[in-house]
């Protein structure tokens, strides 16, 4: 297997980020904070390094990775932008939006990153530590969420260590992620298709482009290659849209539905997104075997929250 002896916890200061950039350059794996979730980074140009991501996560090799760069200019070197893509990038980057665009010939990205597709998913993260790391490294960083495949995404360095400790070289500790759900993925290779609901609500994208998106992914009809039915799974079973716990269940509340713990007592979707994965990690740490979850409204960030909850509740294998 891919076990390394020890995973170093790196401070998010100049020395820690210099060290992290060196490890990336040497083909190692470094987890780092973004505003959405922690990513598991590797140099996107080094196939051995990218192969290490799949091995560390136990990720199926047909599931392509998102490449992170520091700015739009760096993204333009990797993919071909249409005017609409550039408009969205200017409006939402840096931020929680991933664009799927045609890969440029000579981009230099390993074919393991795209799983052989002719398109590439790119994102410019807003987190200041991610920005500093990308600038210190100076190249494209492939980074899926830093969790074992199929399990709960990490929003703290401790979550990363719980899932991948001993399997990766290091994790930069940047504290909890502010957004808490992954980026919104938009395919712009044809008419705009929402591939994954995420940190930028679809309504905001539609307002920016003045047109509606194909949102059939919300019903499961179309999705990104890696959007498995079961994903984000805590160890316990999950029952959704619960207004009270049944015997033996632990209730995860929202708003007026008071739980043993709550996504947001105020019923605030931003707060709920930021708390979502930490609550699921805490339920795992409590060894919860049966989890009930209060209803969460479907609008705005609620779309991403409900998407993650329904995958966390889906039958496994
Ligand atoms: O917020 C995020 O997006 C985080 C942080 C670390 O940036 N990353 C993340 O990566 O969520 P990951 O690997 O957990 O999810 C990436 C998704 C997968 O569902 C994958 O199938 C899809 O992006 N994807 C990657 N490349 C694609 C492509 N060329 N076409 C369509 N979907 C793609
Ligand atoms: Mg993921």
TrEMBL record:
<feature type="binding site">
    <location>
        <position position="123"/>
    </location>
    <ligand>
        <name>L-threonine</name>
    </ligand>
</feature>
<dbReference type="GO" id="GO:0006450">
    <property type="term" value="P:regulation of translational fidelity"/>
</dbReference>
<feature type="binding site">
    <location>
        <position position="63"/>
    </location>
    <ligand>
        <name>L-threonine</name>
    </ligand>
</feature>
<dbReference type="GO" id="GO:0000049">
    <property type="term" value="F:tRNA binding"/>
</dbReference>
<dbReference type="GO" id="GO:0008033">
    <property type="term" value="P:tRNA processing"/>
</dbReference>
<feature type="binding site">
    <location>
        <position position="153"/>
    </location>
    <ligand>
        <name>ATP</name>
    </ligand>
</feature>
<keyword id="KW-0963">Cytoplasm</keyword>
<dbReference type="InterPro" id="IPR005145">
    <property type="entry name" value="Sua5_C"/>
</dbReference>
<keyword id="KW-0808">Transferase</keyword>
<keyword id="KW-0548">Nucleotidyltransferase</keyword>
<comment type="function">
    <text>Required for the formation of a threonylcarbamoyl group on adenosine at position 37 (t(6)A37) in tRNAs that read codons beginning with adenine.</text>
</comment>
<dbReference type="InterPro" id="IPR006070">
    <property type="entry name" value="Sua5-like_dom"/>
</dbReference>
<feature type="binding site">
    <location>
        <position position="196"/>
    </location>
    <ligand>
        <name>ATP</name>
    </ligand>
</feature>
<feature type="binding site">
    <location>
        <position position="59"/>
    </location>
    <ligand>
        <name>ATP</name>
    </ligand>
</feature>
<dbReference type="Pfam" id="PF03481">
    <property type="entry name" value="Sua5_C"/>
</dbReference>
<feature type="binding site">
    <location>
        <position position="36"/>
    </location>
    <ligand>
        <name>L-threonine</name>
    </ligand>
</feature>
<dbReference type="Pfam" id="PF01300">
    <property type="entry name" value="Sua5_yciO_yrdC"/>
</dbReference>
<feature type="binding site">
    <location>
        <position position="232"/>
    </location>
    <ligand>
        <name>ATP</name>
    </ligand>
</feature>
<keyword id="KW-0067">ATP-binding</keyword>
<feature type="binding site">
    <location>
        <position position="145"/>
    </location>
    <ligand>
        <name>ATP</name>
    </ligand>
</feature>
<feature type="domain" description="YrdC-like">
    <location>
        <begin position="14"/>
        <end position="200"/>
    </location>
</feature>
<feature type="binding site">
    <location>
        <position position="143"/>
    </location>
    <ligand>
        <name>L-threonine</name>
    </ligand>
</feature>
<keyword id="KW-0819">tRNA processing</keyword>
<keyword id="KW-0547">Nucleotide-binding</keyword>
<comment type="similarity">
    <text>Belongs to the SUA5 family.</text>
</comment>
<dbReference type="GO" id="GO:0003725">
    <property type="term" value="F:double-stranded RNA binding"/>
</dbReference>
<protein>
    <recommendedName>
        <fullName>Threonylcarbamoyl-AMP synthase</fullName>
        <ecNumber>2.7.7.87</ecNumber>
    </recommendedName>
</protein>
<feature type="binding site">
    <location>
        <position position="119"/>
    </location>
    <ligand>
        <name>ATP</name>
    </ligand>
</feature>
<feature type="binding site">
    <location>
        <position position="68"/>
    </location>
    <ligand>
        <name>L-threonine</name>
    </ligand>
</feature>
<dbReference type="InterPro" id="IPR050156">
    <property type="entry name" value="TC-AMP_synthase_SUA5"/>
</dbReference>
<dbReference type="InterPro" id="IPR017945">
    <property type="entry name" value="DHBP_synth_RibB-like_a/b_dom"/>
</dbReference>
<dbReference type="InterPro" id="IPR038385">
    <property type="entry name" value="Sua5/YwlC_C"/>
</dbReference>
<feature type="binding site">
    <location>
        <position position="183"/>
    </location>
    <ligand>
        <name>L-threonine</name>
    </ligand>
</feature>
<dbReference type="GO" id="GO:0005524">
    <property type="term" value="F:ATP binding"/>
</dbReference>
<dbReference type="GO" id="GO:0005737">
    <property type="term" value="C:cytoplasm"/>
</dbReference>
<dbReference type="GO" id="GO:0061710">
    <property type="term" value="F:L-threonylcarbamoyladenylate synthase"/>
</dbReference>
<dbReference type="InterPro" id="IPR010923">
    <property type="entry name" value="T(6)A37_SUA5"/>
</dbReference>
